[in-house]
Design brief:
- By secondary structure, this protein is α/β, with parallel strands linked by helices.
- It has a domain at 223-318: Acetylglutamate kinase-like (Carbamate kinase, 3-Layer(aba) Sandwich).
- The chain has helices at residues 9-12, 21-40, 52-64, 74-96, 131-141, 168-176, 207-217, 249-257, 267-278, 292-296; strands at residues 2-7, 44-49, 102-105, 108-110, 123-129, 145-147, 153-157, 164-165, 180-183, 189-194, 197-200, 222-227, 233-234, 242-248, 283-288, 302-305, 313-314.
- Strands 1, 2, 3, 9, 12, 13, 14, 15, 16 and 17 form a 10-stranded mixed β-sheet that branches. A 4-stranded mixed β-sheet has the order 8-4-10-11. A 3-stranded antiparallel β-sheet has the order 5-7-6.
- Helix 3 crosses helix 4 (74-96) and helix 7 (207-217) packs parallel to helix 9 (267-278).
Length: 324
């Protein structure tokens, strides 16, 4: 099967970490082991990644050093993180399987210049702050800030919806010749059509939505969206909470519309899974990095499937330990 795997930038620089290179390498090794296993099982793999913490760090660095070094626009910072994190992922994959061909493709993603997100920035980037610290950055540096799902405050930027993948043909050709391709990093470099060709715009595209667009463009069988839990839960945090093994696309869309999945966490993943399956994708998976291979092989995670493959079903409860 052809599998597009999306890993979050927060999985590479985890909450509470400073984001040192050694920390990022250690975190990336978790998904690298599973991705290499997928390749060894004969699957074609495209790996995508987020860049929220990394592009936010670059954004802050450029702002702090603006008096000495001219700052670069946000689309250029996204391109820089594509190279940075592509190199990181190629490094850890090479540690596990030096013979596996890996390629990072700088990927431009087309967006609509009239997308409403340009007037309403919502994409969090960079580190977490207290509200007082965030408000100080807002006053002193002109950053826009917002609360991020109750976890703290972060800078926010525009996040338009992806409309097309400029380099999808190159990605497809590399995959078909057997390479493990890293593409559309950080949601892709945001560009719009102009009289002179494609021109960059200041934004950070949601990596899950860009991954769905890439999966459709490259005719992937499976879109695997990695998160911090093994399965999607309904009625999360209540006594009625149920982990789901399967959700039909209609049920997933209905629950998303009802507000079951918060926009700051599971919401974009469900939305992207619904987009992929609705547009003709075979299966979308949501699971943890540690369970990636099991989920692709049918033994874990939550599968979002066409209605004809329903109904939705909860996961079987874990077997109780048998006393020795």
């Amino acid at each position: 099967m052809r599998v597009v795997v999306a890993i979050g930038g927060n999985a590479i620089t985890q909450e509470g970490q400073r984001g040192s290179w050694d920390e990022q390498l250690a975190n990336a090794r978790v998904v690298a082991r599973e991705v290499v296993r997928l390749k060894r099982l004969g699957h074609e793999v495209v790996l995508t990644h987020g860049n929220g913490p990394q592009v936010g760090a670059l954004h802050l660095q450029h702002d702090v050093a603006a008096a000495q070094v001219p700052p670069l626009p946000l689309d250029v910072l996204v391109a820089m993180t594509q190279g940075q994190l592509g190199y990181l992922l190629q490094t850890v994959i090479g540690e596990i399987d030096p013979g596996l061909e890996t390629v990072t493709v700088l990927t431009r993603v087309q967006v609509d210049p009239a997308d409403p997100s340009f007037g309403n920035p919502t994409k969090p980037i960079g580190q977490f702050y207290s509200e007082d610290e965030a408000r100080r950055l807002e006053r002193e540096r002109g950053f826009q800030v917002a609360s991020d799902a109750g976890r703290g405050w972060r800078c926010v930027v525009a996040s338009p919806s992806p409309q097309g993948i400029a380099e999808f043909g190159s990605v497809l050709a590399l995959v078909e010749r057997g390479a493990l391709v890293i593409a559309a990093g950080g949601g892709g470099i945001p560009v719009t059509d102009s009289s002179g060709g494609l021109a960059g715009v200041e934004a950070v595209i949601d990596k899950d939505r860009a991954s769905a667009a890439l999966a459709l463009a490259t005719r992937a069988d499976v879109l695997a969206l990695l998160t911090g839990v093994e399965r999607v839960a309904i009625d999360f945090g209540t006594r009625w909470q149920r982990d789901m093994a399967r959700l039909t696309v209609s049920d997933a869309a209905r629950l998303l519309d009802k507000g079951e999945f918060p926009p700051g966490s599971m919401g974009p993943k469900i939305d992207s899974a619904v987009r992929f399956v609705t547009a003709g994708g075979r299966t979308a998976l949501i699971t943890s990095a540690e369970r990636l291979v099991d989920a692709v092989e049918g033994g874990g995670g939550t599968r979002i499937v066409p209605d004809a493959e329903g109904p939705s079903a909860g996961a079987a409860p874990a077997a109780a330990a048998v006393p020795a």
